[in-house]
DNA sequence: ACCTGAACACCGTTCAAGT
DNA sequence: ACCTGAACACCGTTCAAGT
């Protein structure tokens, strides 16, 4: 039976869930598909291209349907969707973070973030910066969230931070607060800080009334709430 | 001449600068040191342990000397130092982000972030969350900053986003604004958003007067300086 | 104690040859 | 057009044997 690109990506994601990113080899992907390793190169030029296709598949559904509500609520929804999509597959965050795809799902996701910021009155140049900054946070958080799962499965988590931290109380408490927290709550908390920071740099007018000079471009920032 | 651990790390970092993380192999590290690959395992149990030691070396000097000034200025200094250290070696950000070290330089860096937040009245549990969130941003930004350098050297940057973005104007402008910006300015901008978000959740009192109820926790805030 | 030399069990990728 | 079978040039890691 002939292989299609979709079959290859599906088989690769199945293997990813079973063995993790470090166990994802072209030979094993081929084995999952009942084929020799060389055959994969008829469909993807190399492993990197296959990983790009996997990443594009993983972020399906981040950008659509378009979120509604206030701009910050929209960003919460989008960031939350991105995290959930990354969590759907083992090492999903590492897979997507390691690629720079410009395919439809990835672009739709990016556009949704930009639109939300646009609705807040942020000009496209600054919206680009902010969108990337937001994604750094989402990826960083989710990569670490999944790393803890991997370490826990290997019996290496939680680590004895009390000893490792050199008995410095503040460091011990801080590391423990991260290790023991509900990941969703911690994710929401950090995201909220970021959104508050954006809000502090948006003229209040942009949410309720016509525009005023915009601190995001030139002038000094002023608090809006 | 006998090898010491420091020699191995120094040779590995030299090779990292020459070939990048993907070209960093135990065999090549050994070659740099004029030794056979197996000899390295007398000093580090495996490649991961060597990478941990490299990461620990890279972040030397982030936490010390202790930064001074207002809490947010301290965090700017620390985040800036971390970025500069990561930029010192090719793929430095990827190397450090891929490790979870609990050695002295790494701990000192973490403690400096926690102290800065503590001086703003943030309790250690929340300071831990915030410190991790800040580091996600710094690593995400710097990994991408270095990725652009790598792509540029390979002649694959800047990519033709105009075509790739499917001609959506907002996406094109946003991606271009990121690609063409001064990385240091973009870094400072996103960091400032984050710091403003923290400030928005700290009682104003914590910076000028005695405590008032603290939205960061259930309990009242405590001034620490 | 530290290193060599050689091996083991893998990788990603290529490519003539088959169907 | 798609796949096999075999090869090439590598990996990380181990370990008896040397010094």
Give a concise summary.
Two copies of one chain form a homodimer. Chain A is an all-alpha fold and 225 residues long.
What does the model show?
2 copies of one chain form a homodimer. Chain A contains 11 helices and no strands. Chain A is flat and about 60 Å long. Chain A has 225 residues and is an all-alpha fold. Chain A starts with a helix and ends in a 17-residue tail after the last helix. The longest helix of chain A is centred in the middle third of the chain and has 30 residues. The C terminus of chain A is likely disordered. In chain A, helix 1 crosses helix 2, helix 4 packs antiparallel against helix 6 and helix 7 packs antiparallel against helix 10. At the A-B interface, helix 6, helix 7, helix 9 and helix 10 of A face helix 6, helix 7, helix 9 and helix 10 of B. The structure holds a DNA duplex (19 and 19 nucleotides).
Mean pLDDT of chain A: 89
Largest sheet of chain A: none
Structural class by helix and strand composition of chain A: mainly alpha
Strand runs of chain A, count: 0
